[in-house]
Amino acid sequence: MRRTAEEHGFGWLHTSALWLLAKNILRSTGDTAEPRELLTRMITACDRESDLTSWMVGMATLAYVEFVDDDHERASLLLGAVARRSDESGFHPEKLDPVDMAEFTATMAASMPAGVLRAGDEAGRSLDRNGIAALVAACARRR
User: Fold this and answer.
1) How far is Cα 37 from Cα 47, in angstroms, rounded to an integer?
2) CA distance 135 to 129
3) Would you say residue 12 has pLDDT above 50?
């Protein structure tokens, strides 16, 4: 499905397939390397196609990958970037996926130190497009 969607220019379907595969691998195996690679590709494609809602879902899921890998600072930065776009657009990733995204968000909020969440939220909200691209690239290099 991913290849067919990509070959025929169905960007939304392609990015959705990347996200679903990443989420499935993360849930079924606990592996973070492949989901990280899939999500960074997804986020880049969403940015290129100006697909804000899917971009936000990918960023929030990548935050959970960083959280699972014990990088709470990076996870909170990603969440801050998403929070800013949520405030601007009125869309929240949990609306697209009220099961997994809601659980990921709640788990991170309950498990990360409040100071880390606050600092990451503030810094993540202030990131411009180049700053976010650098943050996503740093996540990709972590593999």
Assistant:
1) 16
2) 10
3) yes
Round to whole Å and give the CA distance between 22 and 59.
12
- Each residue's pLDDT tens digit, 38-59: 999 999 999 999 999 999 999 9
Entry pTM: 0.91
Range 37-72 burial, b when 16+ CB lie within 10 A, else e: ebbbbbbbbbbeeebebbbbbbbbbbbbbbbbeebb
Give the span between the Cα atoms of 88 and 32, in whole angstroms: 30
Model confidence over 74-122: pLDDT tens digits? Answer: 999 999 999 999 999 999 999 888 899 999 999 999 999 999 999 999 9
User: Which one-letter amino acid corresponds to residue 75?
Assistant: A
120 residue type, one letter: G
- Do residues 37 and 29 touch, judged by C-beta distance below 8 A? no
Q: DSSP strand E in 30-95: where?
A: none
